[in-house]
Amino acid sequence: MVWDPQQYLKFSGHRLRPAVDLLMRIPDFAVREIADLGAGAGNVTKLIKERWPGATVTGVEGSAEMVAAGRKAAPDVLWSHEDLGHWHPSRQYDLIYSNAALHWLPNHAALFPSVMEKVTPGGMLAVQMPRNFTAPSHVLIGETALNGPWRSKVEHLVTPPPVEGPAFYHDLLAPLSANIDIWETEYLQVLEGDNPVKEWTKGTWLTRYLDVLQGEENAAFEAAYGERVAKAYPKNAAGQTLFPFRRLFMVAQRKG
Length: 256
What we know:
Layout: H1 5-8, H2 12-24, E1 33-37, H3 43-51, E2 56-61, H4 64-73, E3 78-81, E4 93-99, H5 108-116, E5 119-130, H6 136-146, H7 151-154, H8 166-173, E6 177-191, H9 196-202, H10 207-210, H11 215-232, E7 241-254
Parallel strand pairs: 1-2, 1-4, 2-3, 4-5
Antiparallel strand pairs: 5-7, 6-7
Helix pairs in contact: 2-3, 5-8, 6-11
């Protein structure tokens, strides 16, 4: 995927809120080394550095465009341009933080214990992932993909939801954890503008499909999805669009 930081940050306030909610649930403890997995444009990584100014913070990000934006937003952070799927550090971290990134990686049954192994004993793993994949915003992307002349090019992208339920992650992490806290929050996001849910997904999930298509076909796919999603999320009397969005959180302390 080619990430567009400006498109992603169109809704920066709404995207930042769960990241801050996760950050605030991490208890105060001695931290020297922090890794932010999927650090994006650095707006959250900057807050992590501000909370633990004496720690070395490394932002790990696979998009060159996002890394460039991150280096401007958080110049006192170490930036590592690498695919999260190939992240195999030689050392452990006191805190591994990841906001809205690990759902892009497959095989969570193996991934989460592997990431926990990179946490120092007594350290913390803090993760937030969207779990909105059965909502119209995301289901209609797949519906559009399977009902158009572009089907053969994009149908491989129509896959089951990438994030499991809370109990799945509890069962994975509880044997490795001294303490574990897992919860879900559904934010009722009040969006402004023309077809804002389309614009929201265009910054993330829809990008996977648009990257495959070119020219008129790309525009036609976006328009077809836009028509569907506008009907699913009509504006209210005030001209606003209400967009419920569910997210899954976990904060786990590794056994000493």
